[in-house]
TrEMBL record:
<keyword id="KW-0408">Iron</keyword>
<feature type="domain" description="Cytochrome b/b6 N-terminal region profile">
    <location>
        <begin position="1"/>
        <end position="195"/>
    </location>
</feature>
<feature type="transmembrane region" description="Helical">
    <location>
        <begin position="20"/>
        <end position="42"/>
    </location>
</feature>
<dbReference type="GO" id="GO:0046872">
    <property type="term" value="F:metal ion binding"/>
</dbReference>
<dbReference type="InterPro" id="IPR005797">
    <property type="entry name" value="Cyt_b/b6_N"/>
</dbReference>
<dbReference type="Pfam" id="PF00033">
    <property type="entry name" value="Cytochrome_B"/>
</dbReference>
<keyword id="KW-0249">Electron transport</keyword>
<dbReference type="InterPro" id="IPR036150">
    <property type="entry name" value="Cyt_b/b6_C_sf"/>
</dbReference>
<comment type="similarity">
    <text>Belongs to the cytochrome b family.</text>
</comment>
<dbReference type="InterPro" id="IPR048259">
    <property type="entry name" value="Cytochrome_b_N_euk/bac"/>
</dbReference>
<keyword id="KW-0472">Membrane</keyword>
<dbReference type="InterPro" id="IPR027387">
    <property type="entry name" value="Cytb/b6-like_sf"/>
</dbReference>
<dbReference type="Pfam" id="PF00032">
    <property type="entry name" value="Cytochrom_B_C"/>
</dbReference>
<feature type="transmembrane region" description="Helical">
    <location>
        <begin position="209"/>
        <end position="234"/>
    </location>
</feature>
<dbReference type="InterPro" id="IPR005798">
    <property type="entry name" value="Cyt_b/b6_C"/>
</dbReference>
<dbReference type="GO" id="GO:0006122">
    <property type="term" value="P:mitochondrial electron transport, ubiquinol to cytochrome c"/>
</dbReference>
<dbReference type="GO" id="GO:0005743">
    <property type="term" value="C:mitochondrial inner membrane"/>
</dbReference>
Length: 364
């Protein structure tokens, strides 16, 4: 704590550097609210839906804590994406250790969120889990056996929910270790800044100068968060998830939560199952490769053309998110395929631009 209080921080950082601290706050919110929810949850295909419903209706402040946990997940991933894309723009992948641990946090958070999405045992939870876990069967030789082992049988059942519940409870502790490591690496390497200059000798103490910025960002986000929790707690829920899981009733349109939609759009635009799994894997793994493929001798924001490509990439990512929530029919599938192609093309352009800048710098 004292190291945070007296941490030297570049003078010229702005509110884009608040997302990391907001992520830490919402991680604690998710951890505490999830611990409270787990005290009343029964991992069984016969009781899971009713236990969640009973908790929401009968337990004192149960509806509040469930809304905090579900909407808090959306805020958490919103800040993760802001934090990731801010780092991408300002070349934060130059801090290799910090960047790689951050990517691990992203993937692990996705896994925890998926497990949590299945636990309420609504109809969309069942079929979403069926679709995603079935992707493992695309792995050659042992894929089908792996799916059966994960399910604990030949379909999703009570053993599956028990395993998902244990993992959903246990993985946040592992995630907390990675979060601590991420902060530790940040303290060792120091924080970046918008100009990418060496900030040694031009720094201020984190407290009170930048703590005020973080507190202001937290207050604004907390007001919005509290409004959503109290007045519109179901705004992000799919209507199918208000019905108990039914193996005989498939939802007309299966889709995950909004923070999975971009990856889901990439997955389903590929007609081949194994190919879809491969591109889904690359959707996340590409971020692990950036520090090793992109020349990052100097930590600087993107130049003019790089900025144009970057904002096109952001717009394309938003488009992928929208497409992931639309039905699997023409022309959405074709547009998703083209948008997925552009998603990966951006990283090729980032590689080319980076090395051209590096070569020109050497010649100078």
């Amino acid at each position: 704590l004292l190291s945070n209080v007296y941490l030297p921080t570049p003078k010229n950082i702005d509110y884009f550097w608040c997302f990391g601290s907001l992520l830490l706050v919402w991680f604690v919110v998710q951890f505490v609210s999830g611990f409270f929810l787990s005290s009343f949850y029964l991992p069984s295909v016969y009781f899971s839906f009713d236990s969640v419903d009973c908790f929401y209706r009968e337990v004192l402040f149960g509806s509040f804590f469930r809304s905090v946990h579900s909407i808090g997940a959306s805020f958490f991933f919103l800040f993760i994406y802001f934090h990731l894309f801010r780092g991408l723009y300002f070349s934060s992948y130059s801090y290799v250790s910090t960047w790689l641990v951050g990517c691990l946090i992203l993937v692990l958070s996705m896994a925890v969120a998926f497990l949590g999405y299945v636990l309420p045992w609504g109809n969309m939870s069942l079929w979403g889990a069926t679709v995603i876990t079935s992707l493992l069967s695309a792995i050659p030789y042992f894929g089908s056996s792996l799916v059966e082992w994960l399910w604990g049988g030949f379909s999703i059942s009570s053993p599956t929910l028990s395993r998902f519940f244990v993992l959903h409870f246990f993985l946040p502790f592992i995630l907390a270790i990675f979060v601590f490591s991420h902060i530790l690496f940040l303290h060792v390497s120091g924080s970046g800044n918008p100009l990418g200059i060496n900030s040694k000798g031009r720094s201020l103490m984190f407290t009170p100068y930048f703590l005020i910025n973080d507190l202001l960002g937290f207050v604004i986000c907390f007001i919005i968060f509290l409004y959503l929790v109290i007045y519109v707690p179901f705004f992000q829920f799919d209507s199918s998830n208000f019905d108990e899981a039914n193996f005989l009733s498939t939802p007309l349109h299966i889709k995950p939560e909004w923070y999975f939609l971009a990856a889901y759009a990439v997955l389903r635009c590929v007609p081949n199952k194994l190919g879809g799994v491969y591109f889904l894997f690359m959707f996340f793994f590409i971020y692990f490769l950036i520090p090793f493929l992109v020349s990052s001798v100097y930590i600087v924001p993107l130049d003019f053309f790089g900025s144009i490509f970057y904002f096109m990439f952001i717009c394309n990512f938003v488009l992928l998110t929208v497409l992931g929530g639309l039905p699997v029919e023409s022309p959405f599938v074709s547009v998703s395929a083209f948008s997925s192609f552009l998603y990966f093309v951006y990283f090729v352009l980032l590689l080319d631009i980076s090395w051209l800048d590096y070569i020109s710098m050497i010649r100078l």
